[in-house]
Structures are given as C-alpha cells and as structure tokens.
Specification:
The complex is a heterodimer of chains A (about 290) and B (about 325).
Chain A (H helix, E strand, L loop, with lengths): L4 H31 L7 H17 L5 H7 L1 H18 L6 H24 L14 E4 L2 E4 H23 L1 H11 L1 H6 L4 H26 L7 H15 L4 H21 L5 H15 L8
Antiparallel strand pairs in A: 1-2
Chain B lengths: L4 H22 L2 H25 L8 H18 L4 H23 L4 H20 L10 E2 L5 E2 L3 E2 H24 L2 H11 L1 H6 L4 H20 L2 H5 L1 E2 L1 H4 L2 H14 L5 H20 L2 H18 L3 H13 L1
Antiparallel strand pairs in B: 1-4, 2-3
Helix pairs in contact in B: 1-6, 2-6, 2-9, 2-12, 2-13, 3-4, 3-5, 3-9, 3-12, 4-9, 7-9, 12-13, 12-14, 12-15, 13-14
The chains are: A mainly alpha (about 290), B mainly alpha (about 325).
Chain lengths: ~290, ~325
C-alpha cells in the first residue's frame, strides 16, 4: 500500500488527540477497578448518561456541554455514592463481589441502556458548540477543535486527579486502600469511607467524559458497550492502579485505532481495542506499569 | 430424592411429550413460536450455569457463542443445505472449540479479568462477522426455510421439537455433571480455587472442560436460530439481551443447581414473551434487568434459595 507521509502524520496526531480523550473515559475505571478492585462494568453506561444529560441541557436552555458536565459533577458524585452504598451493603461486606457483584453491575449497565432507549429512542444525538466544526492548521497537520478541546479538558482532568491523589490526605488514603487497609484503620481512617469517596469520584468523572464523548461523536444508547472493551483494555494495558500508565495506554490505543481506521477502514476499529486487551491479558496481565 | 439418570431421562421424555401434545392441542402456531424461544433460553441458561454456576466464572459473552452457532449454520446453508440436526451438532463443535480457545487465553486470569475478556471476545467476533461479506456482513443474511419436513409436518413444529430435545439434553447433562466427580471438581474451583489446586484438583483442565461444554451448548442453541428467524444480522445475533438473559435466568432461578436455571428460564422467558406481546419488547427487557439486579441484591440464592429458606423455617 502506498502510504503518504501527510496521511500518516495526520493519523498519528488524530490518534494522540483520541488517546487524550480516552484518558478521560478511562480515568474513572482506573480508580474504581485499578485501586478499589471494584469491577464496575457499568461505567460506560454512566458515561452515556452524562452524554444524554449534556445533550438535554444543550438542546434547552443551550448550555455548553463542558459547562454542563462540570455543573452536574455533584449529581454524579451522589449517584456514585449511592451505588457504592448498595454494592458494599449487598456484596462487598459478604465477600460476594466476584459473581453477584459483577452481575449487579451488568444489570445496572443494561437497565441504564434500556431506560435511555425508552426515553430518547435509538436515534443518534449530538450537541452544538462553537468549537465543533473549525480546525487549526499547522503546516500539513490538521487539528480539529472538536478533538483538541476534549483532549485538553481530559488532560486537565487527569492532572487534577493525579494531584489530588498524590498531595491531599484523602487522595493518599485512596491510594493506601489498595495497599494496606489495616494500616489505614490504624491512622483512624475508615477504609469503607475512603472507598465510598473514591468510587463517587470515579463516577463523577463520567459526567465530564460523557460531555466530551458527545462533542466528539453523535451518541446513541448502546454505544457504551464499545467503550467497555476500550476502557478495560487501556486500564489493563497501562497497569492497574497506575494513573500515568493509564495515560500511556490511552495514547497507545488512540494511535493504533486511528492508524487502523485510516488505513483499513473504521469498521475494524472496535476489534483493535479488544484484540489489544486479549493479547495483553494473555501475554502480560500486569500491564506496562503494573503494581 | 435420588433418581437414576435413565429414570430421569424417561421422566423428561414423558414431560416433553406432554408439552408437545398440549401445544398441538391448542392448535395455534404462535404457541410453538413462543415456546421455541422459551426452550432456547432453557438451553442458554443451563449452558451459562455450567460455567458460571458450577465453577463461578462469569461469562458475559454468551451472545458470541450463540451467534457463532447461528453463523456456522448461515455459512453452511450458503454452501450446501444440510439437515438441521447435523447443523446443530456442527454449531456445537464450532462454539465448543471457541470456548476451549477462549479458556486457554483467559482462564489463567483472576475471575474479573475472565469476565471482561469474554465481553471483549464478543465484540471481536462481532466485528469479524460485520466485516465478513460471505455471511452477509453488516447487512445480514436471509435463510429461506422449507415449508414442511417429513415426518413432523410444519417446519415450526420441527424446530420446536428439536429445541425441546436440546433442552432435555441440556437439563440432563447439567444434572449428570452435578452428581459426578466433574461436578465436585467444579464446585471446589468455585469455593476456593487455590485450595483446590493445592489438594491436587486439575483446575485448569476442569475449567477448560467447563468452557468447552458451556460454549458448545450455547452454539447448539444458536444453530437453528437462522431457520427460526429467517433473517440474521450481527446486531440481532450478538444482541446484549442474550447475554443478559443467559445471566439473569440462572441468577433469578438460583445458580449451581440444575433446576435453578430451568425454573428461572421458564419463568423469565415466559414473562418476557407475554410482556413483548402485551406491552413492548424494550419494557420486557427492562423488567429482566430490574429482576436481575433485585434478585442479586435481595435474594442471592434466587428462587431456589428463597424456597429453601422458607422450607427451613417451616420445619
């Protein structure tokens, strides 16, 4: 195949932008799955919920999707808080996470999807904003703003979370939950409370991720399923519990997907993420920067 | 109550004959159409239970194995129209091999990774089928079924009979496994895999047997699907509702026993058939989702667990 350099460079840049966006989608699962060991496969469903709320408030009264997502952070925080409350009371306390906990999240995923279908139908929805449409041109490289803005917002979210986890007491306590819960108890800090906060934060990120998703592409209820594979592929590839590893994984997947859809066609892109995941799981389950 | 397998099979055959007779007496083909779906879910629920209920490994990719069986039929149908029982056997072999392969790739992992990998497996397979033009690609494929089959008559009755036979095989197989060395081996994996391995249980081999059997049954349930529906497209064959139902039914009925999934599948699938006709198909799926979450939270043992608890407190 004749590969032109322009096309290759543009595909690489598009991949980096896409990877930046994937970081926002995955960062929540990096916390819930990577640090807390809660296999929240319903995460993409909350992202789609975020997309639809952004759509709803963009349609009327015409709020900017990113602004909406920031305003809705407390709502998603509360949802996460409640979900963890149920999860802990019904499964975690009894050590029943593996079978019933998974089925619980699978049920949540399914219920959210069907509810969205019942309310909004299966049509694709999209939002309007000033940065959807125009592009920056730097020499031969095109930077579409609809990709650049989500990428930058996502990186800001990533940096904020990384600072929170590494500098504040609560953040460090969250990191400690993964390592030694007894030690946490010894400094008079309830691991359950910390996990509840961490899980609520992980769900809160879906508000922002959802808004970014609907800026990048039109959304319909079942689209979340494609993201399950991407999210867990990135998480596992980067190494569980490592946020920087997650960022590297997201960028890698973004680039590989972008190259695949540029040179082979977009219908192959979903298989790339899952292929990545299967190979990583089979070859190096600890990931690139695993703990 | 210990009944020998031969006696159990004769009871099953008698029940099956009764079901078929009753359905024929009603004389409405819709009974056969709806009954086929219920029986198909009995097979799927039993198949899921062999891996999920006995060994404790959650499979979210049931739809993939089901669709693999269905697409094996489509593929062969385009090539040369074979008799349906043979297609069912082939679908079982194909999906069983897929189950074995997936087991090899993933079963060395912790439980949660296995569950995620099964989801991934389903999407990879769906992408392959969408991009494979020979079996219709994203457009789907038509399968024209004959009007009648000797000696049964109507083709719908024939499909119903085949699925009835499959359901009996699935139930009898689960029951046989439960009381065999194999079943006890599976249970040790579910209860404590590390301890099982330390005491000499060949866990990897047992898990591979479980994924193969479970996959094969799902493929067999899927093989007649193109002939039932007449038109197969990837989105329908790989639909999330199969994956959800395959989990919800054993969970609602009660996992780890052969009668739990049977009860769950018959109840939930009948409820769904009724709700699809009288309310809407989306709403009927919502009901299944809510039932799944509700049962998982409130009644971990499913209906069987509830009944046991009630009997305990009564005596």
């Amino acid at each position: 195949m004749d590969i032109s350099i322009d096309l290759l460079i543009n595909a690489l840049v598009a991949g980096l932008l896409l990877g930046g966006f994937y970081a926002a989608v995955t960062v929540g699962v990096s916390i819930s799955f990577g640090i807390l060991d809660i296999v929240n496969i319903a995460h993409p469903a909350f992202i789609i919920l975020g997309s639809y709320l952004a759509y709803k408030l963009n349609y009327w009264p015409g709020l900017d999707p990113i602004l909406t997502s920031i305003l809705l952070l407390p709502l998603f925080y509360v949802i996460g808080w409640l979900v963890y409350q149920i999860y802990h009371a019904a499964f975690e306390r009894y050590g029943q996470e593996s079978l019933r906990g998974l089925a619980f999240f699978f049920g949540l995923l399914f219920i959210t999807e069907v509810m969205l279908i019942l309310t909004f139908g299966v049509d694709y929805r999209y939002v309007a904003a000033s940065y959807i449409g125009p592009s920056l041109h730097l020499g031969i490289v095109d930077l579409p703003l609809r990709m650049l803005v989500p990428c930058l917002v996502s990186l800001a979210l990533f940096v904020a979370l990384q600072l929170f986890l590494s500098t504040t007491f609560t953040g460090r306590a969250i990191m400690a939950v993964a390592q030694d819960q007894l030690a946490l108890r010894l400094v008079a800090c309830s691991p359950i409370r910390i996990k509840r906060i961490a899980f609520a934060i992980s769900i809160a990120t879906t508000s922002i991720a959802g808004a970014l998703l609907i800026i990048i592409q039109p959304v319909e209820p079942s689209i979340g399923r494609e993201y399950i594979g991407r999210i867990f592929a990135i998480c596992v590839l980067g190494g569980l519990g490592s946020l920087p590893g997650m960022l590297i994984g997201a960028m890698l997947l973004g680039i590989v997907e972008s190259l695949t859809s540029t040179f082979y066609g977009p219908s192959w892109a979903p298989a790339v993420a899952f292929g990545f995941l299967l190979v990583t799981l089979a070859v190096r389950p600890a990931g690139l920067l695993g703990r | 109550m210990i009944v020998r397998s031969s006696v159990f099979l004769s009871i099953c055959a008698a029940v099956a004959a009764g079901i078929f007779g009753a359905a024929s007496l009603i004389g409405n083909d819709y009974v056969f159409f709806a009954g086929y779906v219920v029986l198909q879910f009995v097979v799927l629920a039993q198949a899921w239970n062999i891996l999920g209920g006995y060994t404790g490994y959650v499979n979210f990719g049931s739809a993939a194995f089901f669709a693999l069986g269905a697409y094996a039929s489509v593929f062969l149908h385009k090539y040369y129209p074979l008799p349906l029982p043979l297609l069912i056997a082939i679908g079982g072999v194909v999906s069983g091999l897929a189950g074995l392969g997936m087991g090899y790739l993933t079963l060395r992992l912790r439980g949660a990774f296995f569950a995620i990998a099964t989801l991934a497996f389903a999407v990879v397979l769906q992408t392959l089928v969408v991009n494979w033009n020979y079996v219709g690609g994203a457009r789907g494929a038509y399968v024209i079924r004959p009007d009648s089959v000797w000696p049964v008559g109507s083709y719908v009755h024939y499909l119903f009979l085949l699925m009835l036979a499959l359901a009996i095989i699935a139930v009898a197989m689960s029951r046989a496994i439960e009381r065999s060395r194999l079943g006890y081996g599976f249970a040790t994996i579910r209860d404590d895999e590390l301890a099982a391995e330390a005491s000499g249980v060949p866990t990897l081999r047992l898990k591979l047997i479980a994924t193969t059997l479970s996959g094969a049954l799902m493929g067999m349930a899927g093989a007649p699907f193109p002939y039932y529906i007449g038109y197969v497209q990837p989105a329908a064959a790989f639909g999330l509702d199969y994956a959800v139902n395959a989990i919800a039914m054993p969970m609602i009925g009660g996992t780890g026993t052969w009668y739990g999934p049977l009860i769950g599948a018959v109840l939930v699938a009948s409820l769904q058939q009724w709700a699809t006709v009288s309310i809407s198909s989306e709403l009927s799926l919502l009901v299944v989702g809510l039932l799944l979450v509700g049962f998982v939270i409130v009644a971990p043992g499913g209906i069987v667990g509830l009944a046991r608890r009630y009997l305990w407190s009564a005596s």
